[in-house]
Design a protein that fits this description.
Length: about 170
């Protein structure tokens, strides 16, 4: 009996070690972006799904306490300057700190959704920051990237999907 338990545990261990943590599945792929009604960062303006829909866009989950978010921020700013639509989801953060961060580093976001309690993050299935969701013009989640968006990730993964969606083709 101990040998059988050992073999079963070994199989689970080997299976677990072969998983790539960057390829976390999302139940939302090809499903609508979640409904929400949250304030805009540092504002009393209420944002909802309708306010951020209608174009192909990236939704970037970020926070001031996230070191990786700081690393990816300059590249997101570059993408925004190239015309890529990016919305921020400021995740479990303080408005004052987030606004100071954007003031210091630049603001690549068309709007920043203040997800103070993490409710939108929970609906998206966020594991942590940064995470980026590629959403089509119809509001369907088409791709989820866990980790930093940089030149390699953009060129090899996100940009081809983004371009297909901009050209009206679903992948």
């Amino acid at each position: 009996m101990p040998l059988i338990l050992f073999i079963i545990l070994a199989v689970f261990l080997v299976r677990g070690l072969s998983l790539n943590p960057k390829e976390l599945p999302s139940a939302l792929i090809d499903k609508p972006f979640p409904d929400f009604s949250l304030s805009a960062l540092g504002s009393s303006e209420v944002l909802d799904k309708a306010a951020v829909s209608g174009e192909v866009a990236l939704f970037n989950v970020w926070a001031t306490w996230c070191i990786s978010c700081r690393a990816e921020h300059p590249y997101l700013t570059e993408l925004a300057k190239r015309g890529v639509a990016i919305y921020g989801i400021n995740y479990k953060d303080e408005d004052a700190a987030a606004l100071a961060w954007l003031d210091e580093l630049g603001d690549p976001y068309l709007a920043s959704i203040a997800d103070h309690d993490g409710t939108l993050g929970l609906d998206l299935g966020v594991y942590g920051a940064p995470e980026t969701y590629l959403v089509d013009a119809n509001g369907l989640v088409r791709y989820r990237h866990v980790g930093v968006v940089n030149e390699r990730v953009w060129s090899n993964v996100l940009q081809p999907i983004y371009e297909q969606l901009k050209n009206g083709k679903a992948n």
